[in-house]
Write a structure and sequence with these properties.
alpha/beta, Glutaredoxin, 2 domains, 46% helix, 7% strand
């Protein structure tokens, strides 16, 4: 799906855009939203956020997301920009009638619980593990804190591996691909390449490994990875992004 880079002032235009505007930086959570937009075949502009100069903390960017976090998605027809990765994914899936069970489906509850688990537990722990010193001032406790986070991340990924096994795979909901699978794949990538200490490996999660291999063959993942300049196999043999402003 075509996309262009845009450097206009965020949120400056009053007219509704013809397509989405995704604000992000290399290999950040915008990668998840990119994959889903590509899978849905939706056009979007990509607006790079320069983290080397903390552009995400600027007053201009905070008008889009007061937390100063990435990503932000400007959505046609909505009265405010969207942030929070899980919320963006759920909105896109429901808006376009794909990548999520219908609200009346028996699988809806299963989908929602794992989507929110990935967002609220797994991704949250990963985010803290990237910058331990932001959350704990006592440097003497950083190693223990990092170890605890790594154990929590490993446990979360083990729960998800067990769920894939229970549904028969290859995806979290069995045969049905959902936006939660893309979110899980990105988190598995980051767990392997970005935490400062005690990196997690795929060795003990064979069902998750199979899911990641399935996703790596999808054109949407290949396109999103190329646009993020992520090289190699993004999930099963990931390499840390070397671009300035990457997550690490």
């Amino acid at each position: 799906m075509d996309c262009t880079d845009a450097r206009e002032t965020p949120g400056a235009a009053n007219a509704a855009p013809l397509h989405y505007r995704l604000h992000g930086s290399p290999d950040s959570a915008n990668y998840v939203v990119r994959m889903v937009l590509e899978e849905l075949g939706q056009p979007y502009d990509y607006v790079p956020v320069d983290r080397l100069v903390s552009e995400q903390k600027s007053a201009r960017y905070r008008r889009l997301n007061p937390q100063g976090l990435i990503p932000v998605l400007e959505v046609p027809g909505q009265d405010a920009p969207m942030f929070e990765t899980g919320a963006i994914l759920l909105f896109l899936a429901d808006r376009h009638g794909a990548l999520a069970p219908e609200p009346s489906s028996p699988a809806r509850g299963r989908f929602l619980k794992w989507l929110f688990f990935i967002s609220n537990t797994l991704h949250s722990d990963l985010r803290i593990s990237f910058r331990v010193k932001r959350y704990l001032a006592d440097e003497s406790r950083h190693a223990l804190f990092s170890q605890t986070l790594t154990e929590r991340i490993a446990a979360s990924l083990a729960h998800l591996d067990a769920e894939i096994a229970a549904t028969g795979g290859p995806y979290l909901l069995g045969k049905s691909l959902t936006c939660a699978d893309f979110y899980l794949a990105a988190c598995a990538r980051w767990a392997q390449v970005y935490p400062g200490t005690g990196r997690w490996t795929l060795e003990k999660t064979p069902h998750l490994r199979a899911l990641l291999r399935h996703l790596e063959t999808r054109p949407s993942v290949e396109t999103a990875s190329r646009k993020e300049q992520i090289e190699g196999e993004p999930f099963t043999d990931p390499r840390a992004a070397s671009l300035p402003g990457a997550t690490a």
